[in-house]
């Protein structure tokens, strides 16, 4: 009987430790699984985009006092995305970056990246 009491005395302690460990693991995993919010991208350029169905274009103007680069990103339906050439703009300059969907259903959307 003594052994049973000793084991039963450990059971609540063990159960408490297991519950505490599981709670910590659950919080840690949920924190790790939560998507990290990227820092808001600062758009220094004034840009507009357009498409003719398979080509996408980003027309950008640098209204800042610093040199900035950009390129177009074209999301293609049923085909890998397309990326235009990087264009470097001095203050006050404008340029166009273009990319083409080679196949699939054509352009789904057009945006630009600054870098």
Short précis:
This protein is an alpha+beta fold.
How do the helices and strands line up, and which of them pair or pack?
Elements: H1 2-33, E1 45-51, E2 55-62, E3 68-77, E4 82-83, E5 87-89, E6 94-100, E7 106-114
Antiparallel strand pairs: 1-2, 2-6, 3-4, 3-5, 3-7
* Rg value: 28 Å
* Beta-strand fraction estimate: 35-45%
Mean pLDDT: 78
Separation, N- and C-terminal Cα atoms:
74 Å
What's the main sheet like? 4 strands, antiparallel
Shape: elongated
| Class from helix and strand fractions | alpha+beta
Record field, number of beta strands: 7
- Are there runs of 5+ residues with pLDDT below 50, and where? 22-40
Helix content: 25-40%
Sequence of secondary-structure elements = HEEEEEEE
Number of helices: 1
Structure description:
It is built from 1 helix and 7 strands; from the N terminus they run H-E-E-E-E-E-E-E. With 115 residues, it is of the alpha+beta class. Strands 3, 4, 5 and 7 form a 4-stranded antiparallel beta sheet that branches. Strands 1-2-6 form a 3-stranded antiparallel beta sheet, with no helix packed on it. The model is unreliable at 22-40 (pLDDT under 50).
């Amino acid at each position: 009987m003594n052994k049973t009491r000793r084991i039963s005395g450990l059971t609540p302690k063990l159960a408490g430790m297991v519950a505490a460990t599981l709670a910590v693991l659950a919080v840690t995993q949920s924190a790790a699984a939560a998507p990290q919010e990227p820092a808001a991208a600062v758009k220094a350029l004034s840009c507009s985009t357009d498409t003719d169905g398979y080509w996408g274009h980003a027309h950008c103007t640098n209204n800042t006092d610093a040199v900035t680069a950009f390129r177009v990103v074209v999301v293609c339906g049923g085909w890998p995305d397309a990326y235009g050439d990087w264009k470097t703009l001095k203050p006050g300059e404008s340029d166009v970056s273009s990319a083409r969907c080679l196949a699939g259903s054509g352009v789904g959307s057009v945006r630009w990246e600054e870098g």
